[in-house]
Amino acid sequence: MTVMLSVELREDRSGNRYLGAPVPTSVMAPWRQTFRAQVGEQRSALLEDHKRTRDGDVGSPPDPGSPPDPGSSPDVGPEHHITLVTPPELEQLSALPQQLPEALEVELIGLGTVQDGEAESWFVVVESDQAQQLRRQLDLGPHTLHVTVGFASQDIHHLPKDRSALVAAQPGSGAALSAQTTQAAPPEAPATSQAGPNSPALNSSVRVRISSGLGSLQPSEQRVARFALEEPERVVESTAQELADLIGVSRTTVVRTCRSLGCTGYPQFRVALAREAPAAGEPEQRETGLRAEARHIVEGLHHVFDAVRDEEAQQLVDRIARAHRVLVVANGQSAPCAMDLSLRLTAAGRPAEFLADALAQQVAVRLLGEQDLCLAISSSGVNDITLRTLQAARESAAHLMLITSQEESPAAELADSSLMLVPPPSSFLESLQELSRLHYTLAVEALAQQVRLRVGAAAQQAVDVLAENIID
Hints:
Residues 204-280 form the HTH rpiR-type domain. By secondary structure, the chain is α/β, with parallel strands linked by helices. Helix content is 43%, strand content 17%. The protein contains 20 helices and 16 strands. A hairpin with a 5-residue loop joins β2 (8-11) and β3. It is globular, with a radius of gyration of 26 Å.
């Protein structure tokens, strides 16, 4: 699909200025339809909502060179654009040309996606000789172009968004069309990628699907598929990047292979293999019963603080004790631990707050001052709601401390400091079946006890209150 788009100096919600080309909702409609076919209605709505939160909604921009029609109503929908010159690049330019081109011819190639851990980004790959020529005039190098459709956790900027990431391409190409009047048919997606989570294709054995689909894969994809057949346990225990490094292919190839085999991405492919892992060999024999289960759980808690240096732990205790105000934030599975931590700290003589409402968290963290502490708990570091709270906390002057089990995550990047807890050793399948926050409960107990010892006499007030409420 080839369209003509206007070029303008734009500004995002954070005040960053960039050179971009707005894309009308009428042009994006068929691509959004293909996007929904790829990932499903419910998930696509969530990913688009993340983008809408960042970029907002707009009316469809007018056709370049055409007078506005007073009687027409704008085609309102999610804001879409192509970034021609990024904010950092724009800051480095001494000046923009006195007259920008009125319109650029761009070609929308196909729907693509990239993943990095839990982060996932969907976009339309774009190519334009005129756009690259404009960049050369500004003494800038080549730049891959795309239109973001939606993303999970956060958008991805460090992975290539070019033809190598395509999962659904449009059939054929047409002449240049007016951006205001373009009404193209939806691009066709590969049939194997449209399988939903309950389709017969996905309910069949993943190993059978790999074997039967091997011949239709590209050579690099076949290497991934064969490795999954020969070493399923290693695939299950590897991230997409680890698997790519192990096989000697790109991460994009790993993700593309999974989609070619009917999965929506690597996480789903990994879970499907994990479910079949017990059938590949003898199941592990383990003592059963409540006492045996308790011993098994406790054995996994011995190394919770192995990644924490003594000085790091002491610094956290000191920060909690000295802070004017302590606000504990968490969501999802981590929320009970956060509430428990606030109660334990208060009982230890160091009053702390916990707000269960996500919006209230975002308001409260913005009000924190330089002497305050925001203490966040996120095991994965990718919870969307928690990330929004942490982003809001960055706008305050308070110190942001994160308790997590992932050293490299979006949450860890936002935090001023982190306390790394080592989760109990388990396989990938066990981590899905036996999701536990017991090691966080242990950390809460230990941390509250250290704070109690630190604040000393103040903790006696809590003891007095408890004594007054004991009934014979």
